[in-house]
Amino acid sequence: MLTIKLKQPSVIPGFSLTLGFTILYLTLIVLIPLSGLFFKTVTLSWHDFTQTITAPRVMAAYKISFGISFIAALVNVFFGFIVAWVLVRYKIPAKKIIDAMVDLPFALPTAVAGIALSALYSDHGWIGEIFARVGIHLAFNPAGIAIALIFVGIPFVVRTVEPVLHDMDLELEDAAASLGANRWQVFTMVILPHVMPALLTGFAMAFARGLGEYGSVIFIAGNVPMVSEIVPLVIITKLEQYDYAGATAIALTMLIASFILLFIINMLQRWSGGRMLR
Amino acid sequence: MKSKSNITEPFLIRVFLIVIAIGFIGVFVALPVAVIFIEALAKGIGAYFNELNNDNAKAAIKLTVLVAAISVPCNMVFGLAASWAITKFEFFGKRLLITLIDLPFSVSPVIAGLIYVLLLGANSVMGKWLDAHNMQVIFAVPGLVIATIFVTFPFVARELIPLMEEQGTEEEEAAIMLGANGWQTFWNVTLPNIKWGLFYGVLLSNARAMGEFGAVSVISGHIEGVTNTLPLHVESLYNGYNFVGAFAVASLLTVLAVFTLILKMIIEYYYPHEIKAAR
Q1: Does domain A38-271 have CATH number 1.10.10.10?
Q2: B31 to chain A: which residues are within 8 Å by CB?
Q3: What's the predicted TM-score (pTM) here?
Q4: Cα distances (angstroms) measured from residue A97 to each of A244, B259, B278
Q5: Best A18, A82, A130, A131 residue to mutate vs chain B (most B CBs within 10 Å)
Q6: Which of A7, A189, B153, B273: CA 20 to 30 A from A18?
Q7: Which of B151, B107, B154, B147 is nearest to A257 (CA)?
Q8: ipTM (interface predicted TM)
Q9: Which residues pair with A7 in a beta bridge?
Q10: In the 8-state DSSP scheme, what is residue A141?
């Protein structure tokens, strides 16, 4: 009786084999190791735990990681929307190539991106030099972290907004226009509400990615404690000092933050009609 | 069609938006890639090949290929099994299972490395047992492989699940009714339908496996010529102020990334219906 409830009958074989293997592999590779984070943290007393995760250097790192990830995700929402818009709506030369370049931050190893960005944006780099002349330094400070996080976040907004714009019914815009709306009104009242769930999803994904990002950031950040040190680097520093419990406590708080974000992203995706689900 | 001008922007605004879009992608994506090759060739082509043709670089290339060659097939088998179970059957807890499979994507690479140090490192129960049996996992190749499996865990499954969901179960059911066994059905019916989606997933996990930095950085111990993968070798060279070397090795990884994207474009062009996932 119970099996009928748990699984609907099917003539296709291999259910127990494939599901059994899936659950075993998932448990060994993901669930057991991740739960270790929790078990290691509970070896700390509550006092030590709160001391560790609220130490000034750690608090500063949270502010930097959350703050700059937020800014970078916002920048990506703005530019990502424009890129998606141009790619979907306009005829431009080499569109396929520009479209493919949007995926490059997914494909390029983060360490490679890190050294390339710091070569480009440091005071001697092609772009950094221009800004250095007017006294703006783009690398080895929080601005450098923002640049790296903008880079890694680019595909998220473009790739979530693009399909929504693509499937959008032009007749809606046409109808609004023939009823007397000007282009700006059509944009703010028809287009923007339609793509809003996708924009928010892209924002949340870019933000979540920024929080965990390590490789592209450390080369350009300068890594000055209290100023430009991100949380993943604090975790690594603690590990190198053999403070495993400390590293784990901070990692656990970050993991919980990512899970909350993941939950929000799932909600957003359901709201946007499951278009980008999975 | 007369209303076409109603649903587009004035010419100047269009040009302005195009300039912003191309400028943004140019400054944040195209220029960094250009810089890699220019810095790599800064001291000429001879210096470039010298940096690639030495023991440490060769060892890093071999190790990177080895790690990917183990971790990618593991995740391929897992991805196939998981998507078979999830898409061919209806069962309780399916949504939860899909969420758990996606989990590694939302874990920072640094944390991915850390969890294995905790589980298998010298201070853990497992670590002591491994040590007693003379098996080195952390700061050695097996650790690099496991961490890489973790970070590339969802790629194949994530690609196949939406694809196989859409294809349904009718063809498989027909094959079984006609007397094929499960294995024959998978090999002759399912696999031909999903081969490009599968290849796509493998392609993406391979790119990530070869380029992973954060997770392997925690677990590797950074021993030159022994546990340095290509991305870690880039870091060692860069931190040792050997910029030509760092960018030369980085250029290899860049070529891999560009090659991956070109293959991806080709598959998307010829087999658009077999590529389902959002990215």
Answers
A1: no
A2: 120, 126-127
A3: 0.92
A4: 45, 13, 18
A5: A18
A6: B273
A7: B107
A8: 0.92
A9: B91
A10: S
